[in-house]
């Protein structure tokens, strides 16, 4: 894919099928300004549409995944501008419009909007020494990009309430123990390599099945158990209409490796 040269992010393909987005605004610890988010959304949309890409990894630097929304940009924002421009709406495309799996590989600071961005990903990996937190309370505000909802779902009400009302940080090690992170790695490099490795694995499967898998798991966040299970079954039934279900099960029966058609 031809991707434009971006100013605040870098794009690469470290392994076949893996689109790696590296937030690259080092002077501001990857603070998530509007220009950065516009680039991130543009890259995500292009990777989502790209035939070669099967999974996406978002990472930052060793020092910072992202130190939050850009405080200097928000400082003078008024209610009426925030409301009329739907400030933050920009962020929702990541969690609602991108159909390919996104893994966040979190090293260093993931604070405020940075923590929220990490939690918007489908799978969160981090290094033990990563620093997470929702420090908005210290700035006279609250999380605005889903933090109060996603953190609470992930780690429970009492812990999330404590973190959001005190603004206390928590470590990558704790994120793993509490179930916010799917895996915790020793070093930043291991975290990135681990994320890319799992993305490569996901990208090696049927794109169709992967898309359906992401869709049904995400539905569990919105639906009750009964509706969720029924939804899953419908999608499961529908996959009997795909070529890849035939390819996968025939290959198993014939003791061969499947070659996916992605159809
Ligand atoms: N916004 C803007 N600039 C930032 C941010 C930020 N969030 N974080 C760091 N920077 C800048 C600093 O201002 C500094 O710039 P300069 O060199 O020009 O002074 C540079 O990055 C380096 O930072 P520090 O010198 O502070 O580095 P330290 O190692 O001393 O400290 C910290 C690192 C602890 C991460 C510290 O920078 C810090 O506390 N940052 C702010 C963390 C924070 O409060 N984040 C939450 C922001 S609010 C938010 O995300 C709300 C989300 C709501 C929804 C989304 C809305 C868009």
TrEMBL record:
* GO MF annotations, alphabetized: enoyl-CoA hydratase activity
This protein's pathway reads: Mycotoxin biosynthesis
What EC number(s) does the entry state?
A: 4.2.1.17
Q: InterPro entries annotated for this entry?
A: ClpP/crotonase-like_dom_sf, Enoyl-CoA_hyd/isom_CS, Enoyl-CoA_hydra/iso, Enoyl-CoA_hydra_C
PROSITE patterns per the UniProt record, alphabetical: ENOYL_COA_HYDRATASE
Q: Which GO terms describe its biological process?
A: fatty acid beta-oxidation
- Signal peptide (UniProt feature, chain positions): none
Indicate yes or no for the key word Acetylation. Answer: no
Key words, A-Z: Fatty acid metabolism, Lipid metabolism, Lyase, Virulence
What is its EC class?
A: lyase
For this record, the Gene Ontology CC terms, alphabetical, are: mitochondrion
Question: What protein family does this chain belong to?
Answer: Belongs to the enoyl-CoA hydratase/isomerase family.
Q: Which PANTHER family match?
A: ENOYL-COA HYDRATASE, MITOCHONDRIAL, ENOYL-COA HYDRATASE-RELATED
Protein name, as recorded: Probable enoyl-CoA hydratase, mitochondrial
């Amino acid at each position: 894919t031809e991707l434009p040269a971006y100013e605040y992010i870098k794009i690469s393909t470290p392994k076949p099928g893996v689109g790696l987005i590296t937030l690259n605004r080092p002077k501001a610890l990857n603070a998530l300004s509007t220009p950065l988010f516009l680039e991130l959304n543009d890259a995500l949309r292009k990777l989502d549409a790209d035939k070669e890409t099967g999974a996406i990894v978002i990472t930052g630097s060793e020092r910072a995944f992202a130190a939050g929304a850009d405080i200097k940009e928000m400082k003078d924002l008024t209610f009426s501008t925030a409301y009329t421009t739907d400030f933050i709406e920009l962020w929702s495309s990541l969690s609602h419009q991108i159909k390919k799996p996104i893994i966040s590989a979190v090293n260093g600071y993931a604070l405020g909007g940075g923590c929220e961005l990490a939690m918007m990903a489908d799978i969160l990996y981090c290094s033990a020494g990563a620093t997470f937190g929702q420090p908005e309370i210290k700035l006279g505000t609250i999380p605005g990009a889903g933090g109060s909802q996603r953190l609470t779902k992930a780690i429970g009400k009492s812990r999330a309430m404590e973190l959001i009302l005190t603004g206390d940080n928590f470590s990558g090690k704790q994120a793993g123990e509490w179930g916010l992170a799917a895996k915790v790695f020793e070093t930043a490099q291991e975290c990135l390599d681990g994320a890319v490795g799992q993305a490569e694995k996901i990208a090696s499967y049927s794109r169709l099945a992967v898309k359906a898998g992401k869709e049904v798991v995400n539905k569990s966040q919105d639906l009750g158990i009964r509706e969720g299970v029924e939804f899953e079954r419908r999608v499961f039934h529908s996959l009997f209409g795909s070529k890849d279900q035939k390819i996968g099960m025939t290959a198993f029966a014939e003791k061969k490796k499947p070659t996916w058609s992605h159809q």
